[in-house]
Amino acid sequence: MVEVEWHEGRAKWRQIAEIIEDRIAGGEYGPRTALFEVRLAQEFGVNRLTVRKAIAHLREKGLLETEPGVGSRLAPGVGGDSSAD
């Protein structure tokens, strides 16, 4: 589990979304990297609903795409991927 210094008064899902966005910008997640709710929930020590909110926020920003029953991954063109599917 990652030690996160949660900031009071700010939703955890928003803080997780910012961490993921920083990882994308920093190249930690490569093109088309899959992100799994269960793994992220365990990593951050939160429930899956919190992770789902973070993923939904990043999807709205165009950074992730989600396929029902499959999961979420970096959207085409994100994380150094210049190809579109």
| Count of discrete structural domains | 1
Order of helices and strands: HEHHEE
Overall geometry comes to globular
Strand order of the largest sheet: 1-3-2
- CATH class identity: Mainly Alpha
Q: How much strand content do the residues show?
A: 5-15%
> What Rg, in angstroms, do the CA atoms define?
13 Å
Please give the largest β-sheet: 3 strands, antiparallel
State the helicity in percent bands. Answer: 40-55%
Description of the molecule:
The chain is of the alpha+beta class and 85 residues long. It has one domain (12-74): Winged helix-like DNA-binding domain superfamily/Winged helix DNA-binding domain (Arc Repressor Mutant, subunit A), CATH 1.10.10. The protein is built from 3 helices and 3 strands, in the order H-E-H-H-E-E. It has helices at residues 12-25, 37-44, 48-60, and strands spanning 34-35, 64-67, 71-74. Strands 1-3-2 form a 3-stranded antiparallel β-sheet. A hairpin with a 3-residue loop joins strand 2 and strand 3 (71-74). Helix 2 (37-44) crosses helix 3. The longest helix has 14 residues, at 12-25. The protein is globular and about 35 Å long.
